[in-house]
TrEMBL record:
Organism: Caballeronia jiangsuensis
Entries under Gene3D superfamilies matching the protein: 3.30.390.30, FAD/NAD(P)-binding domain (3.50.50.60)
Pfam family, one: Pyr_redox_2
Protein name: FAD-dependent oxidoreductase
SUPFAM superfamilies the record matches: FAD/NAD(P)-binding domain, FAD/NAD-linked reductases, dimerisation (C-terminal) domain
InterPro entries for the chain: FAD/NAD-bd_sf, FAD/NAD-binding_dom, FAD/NAD-linked_Rdtase_dimer_sf, Pyr_nuc-diS_OxRdtase, Pyr_nucl-diS_OxRdtase_dimer
Domain FAD/NAD(P)-binding residue range list: 12-327
Family membership noted in the UniProt record: Belongs to the class-I pyridine nucleotide-disulfide oxidoreductase family.
Cofactor: FAD
UniProt superkingdom: Bacteria
Keyword annotations of the record: FAD, Flavoprotein
Location of the Pyridine nucleotide-disulphide oxidoreductase dimerisation domain: 349-454
Record flagged with keyword GTP-binding: no
Length: 466
């Protein structure tokens, strides 16, 4: 049944997409008594809990457990033959996702947010026509509108790739058997996480990287250490590759022909070459919302688009592609509503890559500091120097810090090592408080912890002028 009477439903706040930043803002506004609607195609709670952060980390956890079991003898634990039950792995991941979907659905209901399930498209300024999932339609308009549609995996136009029906990180969560040989195109954040997870679940894995090294946004010493760890896990990494063509079908048999004539044969292929914004076919031109050359919505430091009363949140607005960054967009917007001048300018977003050894980083690395002409003092500490790393029998990796040459300000930190994603928060708090590095150097951090390694690292910072 179609909405043919032209009736327009008015809301104080209207959200197109329900990712982390948008849903958080919608719930808070609804709790304050505002009339709020969230238009969502189906991923209640956003991509993070449905197909990204949460399920992929649940899969990675299964891979880590499998790896631990298979290496239990290294710790004096005798085990019998181990077998991965991929059906159970998949069910476990699905169960975690469903629990969080229920949490988010209940959160919307408790706050009084109207959840509208369907595909929304602007048909005018701040007005959206929604083709509902049940076949009907509604026209909604908001005093303010927030676009929070996120991104999706990019499948590049390589000859034969799309015909091969490749996996992305979304479909990889649905495989019912461990791939015999998984070919991963892309050596970035997602590709590396998926490659190691499936290797540890029992797949043979080959990573094909166009650039000269994996994890190209990191310094070369980080990339080299990651590559060494992956090769130790039995993962084949090929860099500087040019893909000529792809044939076959993922899940059956695939073949990748490289520019040097080498043919890589596998059972599955996974593409992880980047992400593109979900801005096509949502009527942005009708709303007066402009995008950049890559399709991301143009916003200012207050997350305002080029259309009056329309804002954008999260990845679609060019915010770093992390859930915690989207949530910080929520903080910016709600603070502005309360009279603050908080913006996105000069914020520093940390991140972690959930491989083993784990990678975390915040602020500048050496390459970025050099490119910006910022003189720095650098200290580096191998994880083998950290007592807790030795008790864990996991001494791979290192910590590295960049300190300003003319002051004691911390400009950047990177760690490749066990639990790096937890340790980075200590450095982040010091950076937020603009504390000199000597505060961490001289703090009595608990022993033996991995964070204690920061004492040792910061003690290696060269004196000014050296």
């Amino acid at each position: 049944m179609q909405n043919i009477d032209g009736h327009v439903e008015m809301f104080d706040f209207l959200f197109l997409g329900g990712g982390k930043g948008g849903k958080s803002l919608a719930i808070e506004l609804a709790k304050s008594g505002k009339r709020v609607a969230v238009i969502e195609r189906g991923m209640i709670g956003g991509s993070c809990i449905n197909v990204a952060c949460i399920p992929t980390k649940a899969l990675i956890r299964s891979g880590r457990i499998a790896h631990a079991v298979m290496h239990a003898n290294d710790f004096g634990i005798e085990t019998g033959p181990a077998r991965v039950d991929m059906h159970y792995v998949r069910a476990r991941v699905k169960g975690i996702v469903e629990e969080l979907i229920d949490v988010n659905r209940n959160g919307f209901e408790a706050a009084g947010v109207e959840l509208v399930l369907g595909n929304g498209k602007f048909e005018g300024p701040r007005r959206i026509n929604v083709q509902l999932n049940n076949g009907a339609s509604r026209v909604l308009e908001g005093e303010r509108v927030y676009i929070n549609t996120g991104t999706q995996a990019d499948v590049p136009a390589l000859p034969g790739l799309r015909e091969a029906a490749p996996l992305t990180h979304v479909e990889a969560l649905q495989v019912e058997q461990v791939p015999e040989h998984l070919i991963v195109i892309g050596g970035g954040y997602i590709g590396l996480e998926m490659a190691q997870a499936f290797r540890r679940l029992g797949a043979k894995v080959t990573v094909l990287q166009r650039e000269s090294r994996v994890a190209v946004r990191e310094d070369e010493d980080v990339s080299s250490a990651i590559a060494a760890a992956f090769m130790a896990d039995g993962i084949e990494i090929r860099t500087n590759v040019a893909i000529e063509s792809i044939s076959g079908r993922s899940g059956d048999a695939v073949q990748v022909l490289l520019g040097d004539g080498v043919r890589i044969r596998g059972s599955h292929i996974l593409v992880a070459t980047g992400r593109v914004p979900n801005t096509r076919n949502i009527g942005l031109d009708m709303a007066g919302v402009e995008t950049d050359a890559r399709g991301f919505i143009k916003v200012d430091e207050r997350l305002r688009t080029t259309a009056l009363g329309v804002f954008a949140i999260g990845e679609v607005a060019g915010t770093p592609m992390f859930t915690h960054a989207s949530f910080d967009d929520y903080r910016v917007l709600i603070a502005q509503m309360k009279g603050s001048d908080k913006t996105t300018r000069e914020r520093v977003i940390p991140y972690a890559m959930f491989i083993e050894p784990e990678l975390s980083r915040i602020g500048l690395n050496e390459r970025e500091a050099a490119a910006q002409g910022i003189p720095v003092r650098i200290a580096r500490l191998p994880m083998s120097a950290v007592p807790r790393a030795r008790t864990n029998s996991d001494t791979r990796g290192f910590m590295k810090v960049l300190v300003a040459a003319d002051s004691d300000q911390i400009l950047g930190f990177a760690m490749l090592g066990s639990e790096a994603g937890e340790v980075v928060s200590t450095v982040q708090i010091a950076m937020l408080g603009k504390l000199p590095y000597t505060v961490i150097r001289d703090a009595p951090l608990a022993h033996p912890t991995l964070a204690e390694g920061l004492n040792l690292l910061f003690a290696e910072v060269p004196a000014r002028g050296n």
